[in-house]
Amino acid sequence: MCDFIMNDFEPSSAAAWKQKIQFELQGADYNKTLLTKTNEGITIKPFYHLDDFEKITIPSAEINPKICKKVVISNEKQANLEAIKAFRNGVNSLKFVADTIFNIDEVFRNLLNKNIEFHFQLNFLSEEFLLKLIEFLSNEMSYLNIDIIGNLAKTGNWYKNLNTDFKTIENLLQKNNSKFILSVNANIYQNAGANTVQQVAYALAHVNEYFTKFDANIASKIQFNFATGSNYFFEISKIRAFRYLYNLILSKYNTSANAQIYSEPSLRNKTLFHKITNTFRSNTEIESAVLGGSNTISNEFSSEELLQNNLLKNTQHIVKGTYYIEAITKQITEKALTIFKEIEKSGGFLSQLKEGTIQRKIKENAQKEQTQFESRTLVLVGANKFQNKITSLKEDVDKNLLQKKKARKTLIIPITTKRLSEKLELKKLKNEA
Amino acid sequence: MKRKDFSDLKIETQNEKDVYFEHEEFIAGTAPFLRGIYPTMYLEKPLETKILVEFSSPQKCNTFIKEHITKGYKYFTFHINSNNTNPIDEKETGGILISNTEDVKTLFNEIKLQNLEITIYTENNTLNVIKLLNLGLRELQTSLENLNFNIQLNTSANIIDVFEYFIQHNIKSIEISNTRSIENKTPEADLADLLFTSYVCIQHHVSKGNTIDSIANKISFNLKLGNKHFIEIAKARSARMLWAKIIHLFNPKKQASYALKLHATIENATTILPAIFGGYQSATSFETEQLVALEETGITKTVDPWAGSNYMEQKTAEITSKAWLLFEGLKNK
Asked: What molecular function terms (GO) are annotated for this protein (chain A) (predicted)?
């Protein structure tokens, strides 16, 4: 197609490119100057070229991703009004967050039969209530996101105990095998400081505990919740690597499924001050989540204007063939598979959670990042660098990020959200007070 | 259920692309510069952040510039409004109100201009604005030729007059821009106009007995980015290849003449990423968002990260061939 250009100029090989770079470096060390080593143990090269092309084939799903708005239910009427308003603004996916059972009729007033998908984040487990909710939403697309293992990992405790929790799920699954009951909340691992390879491996080992208990015919009815960090291309690759490995593992169960993926912006890199930086961060995170192939994306920290962004429409095919993304996807996949195998060999995810191995591994990576944050090789604009370039306003503080911490006795060490800038910010708040 | 044994699972790697385009083997740092003008791009030459200055009061601008100098900035874009000098548009244009040399002196008062690089952009008569600036600068005991001034010149402006002045006064560089004319234009039509405007200037210069190498690297493009993310990236890659193709017509001696520098004008924060992906040299942009994009997303760690994307390479090829046809059409008119 570009013959008229091809006639005038010669193509170059990867070797010729590298040689040119080395010549211009004038003796400086290529490896030290131009390679980026990540915490995953992956090396980013200064360029990727057709000559070194490699890829794995990702199971593709036709996805028109939905943008989801979170609605916290503390008062049913208010939650309902908030949901209706969002729907009127073009939102076609809602996530209801609740700490206790609520009046279902009131929350869903005027919201049914509108082609809205409903997600839930319920911080309790009540079989009776869930059955009612399922029945009420029987004609709607809904995702209950019940994750007893995720709850154990996050809080350190079962809802009641191992047997009762599993029994509840078993009952729910038996009565409703066509519904999305279960989820794997891998966002916990990202928010606590696990790297992309660990997140993929843990999500797989986590779901395999459900397969071991309930068999893999539930594989197409599980929602995977991922948190997306700011490492743009690694986040795209993370989701692709997961899709590949999900089916690889399912092949052992003689089945296959397209993973249902829900992505939300990470909390790890959000800062208390300068809301605008969080908005931009989450905008790039949403891009990564879309391009990686998420089915639903939370617009938290971001605005509903995002719905107008044409990047969000049918764009996962764009990544295909991209040298860099294909190479990184392959490497994340390889490394995650190795970790997954190790976990399985040593008795599985639950056993490693009880031993504290998963917690220790996440902490190691989180600590590495924290050290990088402190030495400013890992930058959060306005927090540990460029404070002078950003003007801060008193009201420009995202108070939702301040966690309430309750100390309680736990069965295992909980995997909690750790924001990189938290320590620094609390110190600053203290000094200002 | 008994735990499965996963120990023999293996991933299958492929080394063949599904779709391949001939131009994919052009690299960065070598003509036609498909993947960027420097072999390692941002790894060694970071994107320059230009600060837009456009308060109507020259006094306010002066304070604003001084503040930014203390924050470490040295690249500025001045949007100048000389509304007494034959505005091209009848509508109110915004920008720094400069109508006489006193305003120029207020604007630059006690600023060490030799340490800065300044791009001038106006919606009024560009030549009149530059002349006025130069008069003001002379009263400050300096002049355009002694400073790092870049002039933005719109494809629709009266090019040759400005170009002549530009050459006579040895101004650092000229940025051919689409910032006024991008609406409702296809990327190929936009590129064809930019290339043709440059071609006219170069042709004019060379016809007077000058060499191509004395002018090619003084001309660059300043592009306003639209909201079609991936088209903007493909367009930047096409622009570099087409520039090299056109410069080749004049038989340059220097490789640098083949390299087109790109400057981005960002009006919507979401278009910062495509500017970086496209391998631009500078961006007049939102400071905070640009810092986050450059410092936190890791996107500058490898050159031309979207290379190889079947979609991106196809769009690059399409825009390149269509823009070339349109350019030839303009040239042969």
From this structure: cobalamin binding; intramolecular transferase activity
Q: Do B244 and A382 touch (CB under 8 A)?
A: no
Phi/psi at B174 (5° precision): -120, 130
Overall average pLDDT of the A279-283 stretch? 92
Can you tell me the distance from the alpha carbon of A388 to that of B116, in angstroms, rounded to the nearest whole number? 20
Kindly list the domain boundaries of chain A, sorted by start residue: 66-345
Does residue A235 register a pLDDT over 70? yes
**Looking at residue B321, which CATH number applies to its domain?**
3.20.20.240
- Which of chain B's residues have a Cβ under 8 Å away from the Cβ of A34? 40, 43
- One-letter identity of residue A224: F
User: Is B206 an 8 Å CB contact of chain A?
Assistant: no
Name the residue in chain B with its Cα closest to that of A205. Answer: B6
Q: How far apart (Å, rounded) are the C-alpha atoms in residues B5 and A317? A: 34
Q: Which pair of tokens denotes residue B309? A: 């994307």
Whole-complex ipTM = 0.95
Smallest Cα distance from B223 to chain A, Å? 20
Side chain identity at B5, as an amino acid letter? D
Taking contacts as CB-CB distances below 8 angstroms, the residues of chain B near A8 are 32, 244-245, 248
Inter-chain CB proximity A50 and B39 less than 8 Å: no
State chain B's maximal CA–CA distance in angstroms: 89
| B43–A33 C-beta distance less than 8 A | yes
Per-window interface: B 2-61 vs A, CB < 8 A: 3-7, 9, 11-32, 35, 39-40, 43-44
Which tens digits make up the pLDDT trace of B291-326? 999 999 999 999 999 999 999 999 999 999 999 999
What is the assigned CATH class of domain A66-345? alpha beta
**Which residues from A are below 8 Å from B311, CB to CB?**
317-318, 320-321
Test B3 with A212 for CB contact under 8 angstroms.
yes
DSSP string, A201-265: HHHHHHHHHHHHHH-GGGGGGEEEEEEE-S-HHHHHHHHHHHHHHHHHHHGGGT---PPEEEEEE
The range of the structural domain enclosing residue B224 comes to 25-331
Q: What is the CA radius of gyration of chain B?
A: 22
Mapped onto helix, strand or coil, the DSSP state of residue A297 is: strand
CA angle (A346 as vertex; A341, A348 as ends), nearest 5: 75
- Which residues in chain B (65-124) have CB-CB distances under 8 A to chain A? 71-72
Q: Which residues pair with A122 in a beta bridge?
A: A98
Domain count, chain B: 1
Q: How far apart are CA B164 and CA B171, in angstroms?
A: 11
Q: DSSP 3-state assignment of B120?
A: strand
In a domain, B162, yes or no: yes
Please compute the mean of the pLDDT values over residues B151-169 and round it to a whole number: 86
Helix-strand-coil split of chain B, %, nearest 5: 45, 15, 40
Residues A340-350 pLDDT 10s? 999 999 999 99
Q: What angle separates helix A162-175 from helix A127-136, to the nearest 10 degrees? A: 20
By the 8 A CB rule, do B243 and B202 touch? no
Residue B8 lies in a domain: no
Report DSSP state, residue A100. S
Selecting from A230, A249, A337 the residue whose C-beta is nearest the C-beta of B297 gives: A230
Structure tokens at A311: 């990047």
- Using DSSP's 3-state secondary structure scheme, residue A185 falls into strand
Q: Is residue B69 part of a domain?
A: yes
In this complex, the residue of A1, A249, A280 whose CB is nearest that of residue B269 is A280
A126 in helix, strand or coil? coil
Identify whether B306 is part of a domain: yes
